[in-house]
């Protein structure tokens, strides 16, 4: 089955390469969350030079204030795991992941907008079967929401500047470093939510308010469902100061989430206030600091948890090959003991895959040290070498997959050693113009002391090649 689609992939690649030679338009960008795309500048006929421009701006009214913008993505990824979870190879020949997305963005004047997106994620050749939630979703409406900006045409200048609006329906969301809420971009099946988002600007602050239910991905067609029992809410504010530093305080809350802790299952409510302080942009030096607390009740147990993280990076922009050096650290608390009152595992809610695709972990209860160096080999090609050291924060806890299931079964004999292992990864990314890029990745993850205690002694090897066409 894999070899049947390879000629199709090659044809797509050749076609996209021919498009990459088209002349560029300043400020044209394809975002990972496609409702952030803005092609309204194509009202100017002189800027319509790209092959896809006829579908990026389709006027729906004489004044061209109402318009339709369409686009999509085709992604193919070959993955091969040797000794996944540090034991017995199951997927000897590797497998193919395919993702197809298409969206239509209707703008009805300046006050109303209807955004829709369909998504197909297909897994072929994986043994014994595709992983739940992240590998297979044959066909689904991934996004469908109405956006209203009631004051966009207001004669009141203050109301117009407020940029007040709200969205209601099914949507993707991500904020900040995606440690709490993310699209699951790295995996084959993206994550979406149903609910409402309000946003507005006030005195240089940008504010977002969320009230959402997660949409649970299922492997078939039109079989996803909204998790009505769990409600995720949050307020995120952001203000960029004149010196380029951005302050981003937030508070998230998760209600009625079902948890299993030491074989006990119950619903709980968690509240997580925190902040992010960062600087990025055209400067060589960039940094990010984030700190979050968390409290909740699980049955009669009190939960107090927290996370702290820091990222530092420097790019030598005036040096040959423009080398970049990055260091980062994150610490998420774990359970203090195996007694009923010892619950302390941090819950990141709906995070990104923090450590790449070789080890798709939930960052709960993990301490990470990360270092990377990258160089620009050509104008559009960057080679990155990275190293991660991973530890259990608590000797009384394990670590988890994205669905918060233990990767290593919880027992009463977990041992005291905390070092899970070290991952070394090399990645080459090459951009062929705006529409097409490729990523080749290899990672090796020998088991550490804790995995040795748990009799997981095989070395994990991971290889992936990925191609993406966006339009």
| Number of E strands | 20
User: What is the count of structural domains?
Assistant: 1
- Distance N terminus to C terminus? 27 Å
Quote the CATH topology. Answer: Porin
Number of helices: 4
Measured by DSSP, the beta-strand proportion falls in over 45%
Topology (SSEs and partners):
Elements: H1 2-20, H2 53-56, E1 58-59, E2 67-82, E3 95-108, E4 112-124, E5 137-148, H3 157-161, E6 165-171, E7 192-202, E8 205-216, E9 225-226, E10 231-240, E11 245-261, E12 264-279, E13 285-298, E14 301-315, E15 324-332, E16 366-378, E17 381-392, E18 419-432, E19 436-445, H4 449-453, E20 460-470
Antiparallel strand pairs: 1-2, 2-3, 2-20, 3-4, 4-5, 5-6, 6-7, 7-8, 8-9, 8-10, 10-11, 11-12, 12-13, 13-14, 14-15, 15-16, 16-17, 17-18, 18-19, 19-20
Q: Can you characterise this structure?
A:
The chain is mainly beta and 471 residues long. The chain has one domain: Beta Barrel (Porin). It has 4 helices and 20 strands. The chain has helices spanning 2-20, 53-56, 157-161, 449-453; strands spanning 58-59, 67-82, 95-108, 112-124, 137-148, 165-171, 192-202, 205-216, 225-226, 231-240, 245-261, 264-279, 285-298, 301-315, 324-332, 366-378, 381-392, 419-432, 436-445, 460-470. It has an 18-stranded antiparallel β-barrel. It is globular, with a radius of gyration of 23 Å. The relative contact order is 0.12. The model is unreliable at 20-25 (pLDDT under 50).
Quick recap:
By secondary structure, the chain is mainly beta. It has helices at 2-20, 53-56, 157-161, 449-453, and strands at 58-59, 67-82, 95-108, 112-124, 137-148, 165-171, 192-202, 205-216, 225-226, 231-240, 245-261, 264-279, 285-298, 301-315, 324-332, 366-378, 381-392, 419-432, 436-445, 460-470. It has a single domain, classed as Porin, CATH 2.40.160.
